[in-house]
Amino acid sequence: MDNALFVGLSRQINLRRELDITANNLANVDTAGFKLESLMEKTNPGPPARTQGAPNPVKFVLGDGVARDFSQGGLRRTDAPLDLAIEGDAFFAVTTPEGERYTRDGRFQLNDQGKLITQRGEAVQGDGGGEIVIDAEKGPVLIAADGTVSQGTERIGKIGVMRFDNRSVLEKTGDNLFRNTANAAPTAAPDARVRQGMLESSNVKPIVEVTKLIEVSRAYERMAKMMDSEADLSRRSIERLGRVQ
Description:
By secondary structure, the chain is α+β, with helices and mostly antiparallel strands. It has helices at residues 2-27, 206-244, and strands spanning 37-46, 58-68, 75-77, 84-87, 91-96, 99-103, 109-110, 116-117, 123-124, 142-143, 148-151, 154-158, 161-163, 170-174, 177-180, 187-188, 193-196, 198-200. It is built from two helices and 18 strands. Strands 5, 6, 9, 13 and 16 form a five-stranded antiparallel β-sheet that branches. The protein has a three-stranded antiparallel β-sheet with strand order 10-11-12, with no helix packed on it. Helix 1 runs antiparallel to helix 2. It starts with a helix and ends with a helix.
């Protein structure tokens, strides 16, 4: 009976984590460039309690990391000249106090020095790793599909658009940013296109996630009832055994 309780508890822990991940997906359904996340699971064999006839081995449910769906989100037009979306497999590179980070969120703006920055103030990197500096007095900013930034006939720079051969090396650090956890450096993505005046929507499907949220909640409730039944059965068994003795 203890085995059933322990297995049920391991499943409840995972369901709670899955509930949090699904709720986070829904909370970011309108976040530009957000990528859908899901919990990966595995079974972990463990020795059974000393009960006659117990299954061997008992398999507990464990979390095995978070999977992230990097598929392309839909592009929506904003007509804001510094809103940028990437069409293709690539990321913008930005400089943060913690080091270089990568994002699909193209909601950019200019700071007081004319530097192209993110919503949180991180500098957007050019293709050579430097910063993009724009003089607002020189006229409208035009950004070509290859990331080239120009004002009139003057070329200002080129926005860096980077790609990872293995996206599993990217670790989420918050604020829609990713950190490179491997020594392998990203490479330029010449086939990815930069779309000015557009933003990439999240690839979260709200109806699917709401349905999943309901399913996970019900599974959690069923597991709680099962564990209560097992605990009650164990209690009544001990009471009857005590009366017999």
